[in-house]
From TrEMBL:
Gene Ontology MF terms: ATP binding; phosphorelay sensor kinase activity
Coiled coil start-end: none
Topology relative to the membrane: Multi-pass membrane protein
Gene Ontology CC terms: plasma membrane
Primary localization class, coarse: membrane
Protein name (Swiss-Prot/TrEMBL): histidine kinase
Length: 446
């Protein structure tokens, strides 16, 4: 069953349950309200009659005249004497009066419903003045008359409920369709992602949480497309990077084997082959490291690291290259800065960034580390030519390298390690003229 049908059925069922309960409560209360209202009307009528009788109670002739007035009112009533427990007068036939007297306790003033045969009667009692006389007027109305009113009210209420339920069902259908339609459209977009039709993905109109989910799906699709493109580019670049040294090695190996080189050329060929083998080994090792970072979480073991000691290790390892190029490597690190990361791998990432700066620097490379609000910021900048606008957006992708670059994997490895440390690395233009790498790392694992 589709989600829209399920929601419509659930909403309609809930509405029916609620309206049934409301109907039952109203239906139960309406009879009580009708009884109370009828008692109030009987009491008002009775008080008028009692006032007339109190004014005319001076003689028996007046009483007989009052009896005649009562008979003309078309009322069901008793004139009851409490003191003698007897009915003085009634507008009903004698057998009916006898039946009422036998089935009900006239002396019980708390009993508002009397029985006669299979019917019930609503009663109202009004005491004559003076109270010592003990005479009271008892007025009656058949309960069936009130039930007729109750039934009429119920029919109207039931009709209103039917109209209300119809409107509610239509509204439920409208709102569930409005809710489910974006989900159906989103499902179709997910099918396109499944079939890798990224260029055909369309935005859907939605609000609230569904819009957030849709945005997440679009972001996922873009990231997946970027990842697949990067993987394709990676394999293309990897094949190219591996093919170049292999072709060089193959060329010299075949030349040496066929004896077309003299001794000097053979020695040179062997040196080139060793160099290319080492280069090939470096590329393969870096590719293996990237694969481990992507697929083996256990390959990354974070712990608390002191930033000052880590930067000193970077400087010590970079010193030979700095002296070779004749540039200055400056460091400025705040004391007591701590980082939560894998020390060995973070050292590798920083070395890759610093070596990149050294290769492109003209006179100096600066390293600065500061801490603010639980986050450590490490800045590495140089005074070289900087990164071109064409390469800058993809500088951290695999096999993307600028002028004087080596394998094109160093910065990709640095980014992977830093992101595994829950950090972030970005590159901008330095005020020194070269590139400025900004690394942000958390102070603790939280």
């Amino acid at each position: 069953m589709k989600l829209q049908s399920q929601l419509s059925i659930a909403f309609t069922s809930l509405l029916l349950v609620i309206m049934t309960i409301v109907w039952y409560v109203i239906y139960s209360l309406i009879l009580s309200l009708l009884i109370q209202d009828e008692q109030r009307q009987l009491e008002q009528t009775g008080e008028i009659l009692v006032d007339i009788l109190n004014e005319q109670y001076s003689s028996s002739n007046n009483i007989q005249q009052f009896y005649k007035v009562l008979e003309d009112q078309d009322l069901q009533l008793f004139l009851y004497d409490r003191n003698r427990d007897s009915v003085l007068f009634s507008t009903m036939a004698t057998p009916v009066v006898q039946g009422f007297y036998e089935n009900n306790d006239f002396a019980n003033t708390n009993d508002s419903l009397w029985n006669y045969g299979n019917e019930k009667y609503v009663t109202s009692r009004i005491l004559f003045l003076p109270e010592l006389s003990g005479i009271e007027l008892i007025l009656l109305t058949p309960l069936d008359d009130l039930k007729v009113v109750q039934q009429n009210f119920f029919l109207r209420l039931f009709l209103i409920f039917l109209i209300g339920i119809s409107i509610a069902v239509l509204l439920a259908y409208y709102f569930t369709r409005k809710l489910v339609t974006p989900l159906s459209q989103l499902k179709r977009q997910l099918k396109k992602i499944e079939k890798r039709q990224f260029d055909n993905i369309e935005h859907i109109k939605a609000t609230g949480e569904i819009k957030e989910v849709a945005d997440s799906v679009y972001d996922m699709a873009r990231e997946l497309q970027r990842y697949m493109n990067s993987q394709q580019t990676f394999f293309q670049n990897a094949s190219h990077e591996l093919k170049t040294p292999l072709m060089t090695i193959q060329g010299y190996a075949e030349g040496i084997k066929d004896g077309i080189f003299d001794k000097a050329e053979t020695e040179k060929g062997l040196e080139v082959m060793v160099t290319e083998v080492n280069r090939l080994k470096g590329i393969i090792n870096e590719m293996i490291l990237l694969a481990k970072l992507d697929t083996e979480p256990t390959a990354y073991e974070p712990k608390e690291v002191k930033a000052k000691e880590l930067i000193e290790l970077v400087v010590d390892r970079a010193l030979p290259l700095v002296n070779e190029k004749g540039i200055a490597l400056n460091q400025q690190v705040e004391n007591n800065i701590k980082i939560f990361a894998d020390e060995e791998k973070l050292l590798r990432a920083l070395l890759n960034v610093v070596f990149n700066g050294i290769r492109h620097a003209q006179t100096q490379v600066n390293i600065e580390a500061t801490n603010y609000n639980g986050w450590t910021t490490i800045i590495v900048e140089d005074d070289g030519t900087g990164i071109s606008e064409e390469i800058a957006p993809n500088i951290f992708h695999r096999f993307v390298k600028g002028k004087d670059g080596e394998t094109g994997l160093g910065l990709a490895i640095a980014r992977a390690i830093i992101e595994h440390s829950n950090g972030k690395i970005v590159v901008t233009q330095s005020l020194l003229g070269g590139a400025k790498f900004v690394i942000t790392l958390p102070e603790n694992k939280d």
